[in-house]
Specification:
About 30% of the residues lie in helices and about 20% in strands. The protein is an alpha+beta fold. The protein has one domain (about 5-150). The strands form 2 sheets. A 5-stranded antiparallel sheet has the order 5-2-4-3-7, with helices on one face. Strands 1-6 form a two-stranded antiparallel ribbon. A hairpin with a 4-residue loop joins β3 and β4. This is DNA primase/polymerase bifunctional N-terminal domain-containing protein. It comes from Streptomyces luteireticuli.
């Protein structure tokens, strides 16, 4: 387990000891916190595009996924998820919502970190996430110089 990332994640909960106990028992730890806001998306391909683009700009924080459930959770600075109200394909989770977290370095119950917490408390920039997701929905939307998924296509 990445010690700094695991420590940060556990200490975001009301009881870090309970979180670690749940992980040791092979259980997801439902972390309720005001340390971050959560935006949930459901398009895995769109999320991969956004993740690649945001990783290049250093504006990416922890991202948790449950691929079987088609859920991707983006951790944003507190109070900033409200900007996604009404955003197509995004669900804003209420403050103190329980995020089902696996350990940082180990997938558990189909949940795993696409971008692991690193212990710094760095969270995803909401404005860049919104621009990236908007462009993934419609490549004509300005915000990025390219649509990331088109990088991997070859000419026929």
């Amino acid at each position: 387990m990445t010690a700094a990332g695991a420590d940060w994640l556990a200490h975001c909960a009301l009881s870090p000891t309970t979180v670690r106990t749940q992980w040791c028992a092979g259980e997801l730890a439902p972390i309720r916190t005001t340390t971050w806001s959560v935006v949930e998306t459901h398009d895995v391909v769109q999320a991969a595009d956004a993740l690649l683009a945001l990783r290049r700009t250093w504006r990416l924080g922890p991202v948790l996924a449950h691929p079987e459930g088609r859920r991707i959770w983006w951790l944003l600075p507190p109070g900033q998820a409200a900007a996604f109200d009404g955003f197509p394909g995004a669900v804003v989770r209420p403050a103190d919502w329980a995020l089902p977290c696996p350990p940082v370095d180990e997938p558990l119950c189909g949940h795993g970190w696409l971008e692991k917490p690193d212990g710094t408390g760095h969270l995803t920039d909401p404005h860049h996430l919104a621009a990236t997701l908007a462009q993934a929905n419609d490549p004509a939307v300005p915000g990025l110089p390219y649509r990331p998924s088109t990088m991997w296509r070859t000419a026929a």
